[in-house]
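Bench notes, afternoon.
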Amino acid sequence: MKRFLNHLETVTAHRREVRKNCFKCGLYKQGLTHDLSKYSPEEFLVSVRYFQGDRSPYMYQKEKFGFSAGWLHHKGRNRHHWEYWYDMIKGEWVPLEMPLPFFIEMVCDRVAACRIYQKEKYTQKSALEYYYSRNDRFYMHEKTAAKLEAVLKDIADHGEDVAFAHLKQELQEYRRNTEKNQK
């Protein structure tokens, strides 16, 4: 029961942080709906079982079993994960560039996850350090990886508020261009 309550609090706190970040970037709907699948039995029950409090339960399950069914469920339903953006093109699996709204949600998610798991050890460099500690950038679309690194450097150098303001401006321009192209 303790792991259940601790995981519920972690997911809820994470969603609150992502929502706050998304709102700063102008992503209101995505801020409200972020990670709702984490409350589904396929994700929640697995996460309670492998809850540790300082990292994703999926990481522990992957280490123990070589995969995580909860993670496979999660990444297949949440477009803010770069892993969602893979497709078979001409017989080959290739990464696709993430559309800007989902890219921004990914940034908000990564910052929030670092803040929640690192607690008082969190700094504005945490998300960039996490990015460098993993090999994700070698599998993402090259433009997505380069843009993610640039935004995380912006956060590390200037703070979240400045970087989120830049992302909000970029999103507003993206939406204006999208509206023009649809007319």
